Structure formats: C-alpha cells, structure tokens
Amino acid sequence: MCSLICYLIVCCPPTLTAQQQPREVVRILAVGNSFSDDGVEYLDELAKAAGIRLIVGNLYIGGCSLERHWENVSKGLPAYDYRKNCEGVQSNTPKTSLLSALQDEPWDYITVQQVSQNSGLYDTYYPFMPSLLQYLRTHATNPGVRFAIHQVWAYACDSNHSGFANYDNDQSRMYREIVKTVNRVSRKEHIPIVIPSGTAIQTGRNLMGDRMTRDGFHLDYGLGRYIAACPWYETFFGPVEGNPFHPESVSPREAALGQRIAHTALQHPDEPGVLK
Questions:
Q1: Count of alpha carbons within 13 Å of 102, Cβ hemisphere only?
Q2: Confidence class for position 273, pLDDT limits 50, 70, 90
Q3: What is the 3-state composition of the chain as percent helix, strand, coil, each rounded to the nearest 5?
Q4: Predicted pLDDT of residue 14
Q5: How does pLDDT run across 85-132, given as a tens digit for each residue?
Q6: Whole-angstrom distance between the N-terminal and C-terminal Cα of the chain?
Q7: What is the distance between the alpha carbons of residues 87 and 44, in angstroms, rounded to a whole number?
Q8: What burial class does residue 71 get, using C-beta atoms within 10 Å of its C-beta: 0-12 exposed, 13-18 middle, 19+ buried?
Q9: Would you give the distance in Å from CA 169 to the centre of its chain?
Q10: What pTM, to 2 d.p., does this model score?
Q11: What is the C-alpha separation between 268 and 273, in angstroms, rounded?
C-alpha cells in the first residue's frame, strides 16, 4: 500500500485548478532603435505589477532607420544589440542578426518603426517597409504572430536635433505629420495595431508641460518613459488605469494622470490634449 501511494504521488501529481494554472507568457519583439528602447523601458514592470508574464526583445541600433534595418537583413549583418527582458531578467547580446533574434522566441507581436526624424516623411518608408514586413512574416516561428507600428513622438520645442529641420523646427507640425504618416503606412501595409506613444507624449506636454525629454528628443528617464510605456501596456494587455507600478521619480498623481493619458490616446490616437 505504501508503495502504491508513493507511485501515485510521484507519477500522478494533482491536477492544477484553473486558478492555479500558470499564465501564458506574452512575447513582444521590437525591431527598433533608441525610441523603442524608451518605449518599452517600463513595460515589464507594468506587466509584472498586473501579474502578466512577459518577454520583451528589442533589436537596438541607435538612430536605426527602416533602410538600415533592411540593409542588415539583406546582408545578414550581426549589427544589433539584442536587449531582452525575460520576466524581469535582463540580458544584452551584442553583434546579433535580426534573424537570430527573430527566431529566438515564438513572438506573439512584432513592432516596427521608422527613425524619428523620418517618421513623418511617408516616402522614407519605401521600398523598405514592405520588404522588411515580408521577411519578418516569412521567418517568424509563430504562425499567429501579429504586427504593430510604433507611433513615435515629436521633438521638444527647443530641440537641437538636426532632423527637426524636416518639420521647420515646429513640434506641432512634426507630431501631425507623424500621426498622418503612421496611419497611412499602417493602412497600406495592413498593420492592424498602432501604438500611440506619440499622442500620449503630446497630450502629456499639453497638460504637464514640455518636459518629457532628456535631450530634446530621447525621453526623460522617469515621466517621459513612463507615459510612453503606458500605451504599450494598454495596446497589448488592456486598461492600464489602476496599475500600481510607477518609477520612484514619478509621483502617484503623475502616474495616475499618465495612465489616463495613455487610455485616452488609445481611444483618440489622433487627438493630442484630449483627456476624457
């Protein structure tokens, strides 16, 4: 009898209830640059605070354009820092190819974006975007993978970035051109998801002042990155309002406002300053 009991314990462990079943891991890969780095910085902590298991990968080259992404693919160049956050455990693998990172995980979502200074210039997306998307679809290991495009933010009003001249050094114009162009590209390429970080940042500026960046274009390590991450969370996981996480440098009041901003940006992605 004792032998039978031991056998049943070892070989036939109790079945987990629905509440005890481990949650599925969500996997998101950003084919991006420093702006995707800013956007996902706090995404894992927001997910962890909500009990969501998350793996985030970021194929990083500072200032990387779609043209350069496609050149890296077509030449098989191991040109990326592959920054990966696996349920809170961070790693960085330099000299990684896009294909290697693409096949590292069965990604549920893959995001793409244009380099910031060209994000509002429609012609710069072509012919590179269709080729890159086709490559990603062909080589992704998850047949159900979905694609998203990251709507990035305009520069600070006093930014000295040389690419600001593309928009006559006008923040409002840059924002409007980014929104219009990203929407046009997403429709043309049948990209079903737009992550409206640009609208969230612009709304934050309208309500909290133009203090979202640390150098005129990259986001502030606290509030700016937090407000940009909230639309990423809400895009993939649902309402962010009420999430308890916020960086130490962001007050609870600022965090709550940032979450409301993100929620509104998802509802009104083309309307900065709207807060409902």
A1: 25
A2: low
A3: 45, 15, 40
A4: 37
A5: 999 999 999 999 999 999 999 999 999 999 999 999 999 999 999 999
A6: 67
A7: 7
A8: middle
A9: 26
A10: 0.90
A11: 10
Rounded (10°) angle between helices 223-237 and 252-267: 50
Closest CA to 39 of 155, 171, 178, 197: 197
Contact of 216 with 156, CB cutoff 8 Å? yes
Q: What six digits make up the tokens of 129?
A: 């975007």
Contact assessment for residue 241 and residue 263, using Cβ atoms and an 8 Å cutoff: yes
Q: What is the CA radius of gyration of the chain?
A: 20
Residue type for 232, please? Answer: W
58 pairs with which residues across the strands? 30, 83
Q: Where are the beta strands (DSSP E) in 39-117?
A: 54-60, 80-86, 89-96, 109-112
Q: Taking Cα atoms as reference points, which of 52, 49, 59 lies closest to residue 83?
A: 59
In the chain, the amino acid numbered 18 is A
